[in-house]
Amino acid sequence: MTGHVYWIFQLEIKPGEYENFEALMTEMVDATKADEPGALNYEWSVSDDKKICHILERFKDSEAALVHMGNFGSKFAPRFLEVLALKKMTVYGDPSDAVLKGLSRMGAVRMPSVGGFSR
């Protein structure tokens, strides 16, 4: 096990909010890249019709994930929820109880590893 913690969001971009979505995404990506060295991947993808967004977030460890969660809550959560509707969140890796507790409010489903490898 690597100790990494990662998750994938499946989100719906609310009607008429794509421009606000793009601005928020750019701000969140820039802030995460600048302020969170423990964020290993922070990748946003959008469907061709610009209605569905997936976000892959991978962190060095649970401590780095908690830093990100704190920054999200203090800087971005209200605006995020104005433009995006959470459809599904799946958590992978080795999240601590504190990470799982924080993500439980979002209805996160944990998928424990049963095989494979990470480099």
Indicate the percent of residues in helices.
25-40%
> CATH topology, anyone?
Alpha-Beta Plaits
Which range does the strand content fall in? Answer: 25-35%
Shape by Cα distribution: globular
Output the strand order for the largest sheet: 2-3-1-4-5
- Our Rg estimate from Cα atoms comes to 14 Å
| Overall strand count | 5
Uncertain regions: pLDDT < 50 for 5+ in a row? none
Ends apart, CA distance between termini: 10 Å
Main β sheet profile? 5 strands, mixed
Please, how many domains? 1
Give structural notes.
- By secondary structure, the protein is of the alpha+beta class.
- The protein has one domain (about 5-110): Alpha-Beta Plaits.
- About 40% of the residues lie in helices and about 30% in strands.
- It has four helices and five strands.
- The protein has helices spanning about 20-35, 60-75, 75-85, 95-105; strands spanning about 5-15, 40-45, 50-60, 85-95, 110.
- A five-stranded mixed beta sheet has the order 2-3-1-4-5.
- β2 (about 40-45) and β3 (about 50-60) form a beta hairpin.
- The longest helix is centred in the first third of the chain and has 18 residues, at about 20-35.
- It starts with a strand and ends in a 9-residue tail after the last strand.
Helices, strands, pairings?
Elements: E1 5-13, H1 18-35, E2 39-46, E3 52-59, H2 62-75, H3 77-83, E4 84-93, H4 97-104, E5 109-110
Parallel strand pairs: 4-5
Antiparallel strand pairs: 1-3, 1-4, 2-3
Summarize the entry for a quick read.
By secondary structure, the chain is of the alpha+beta class.
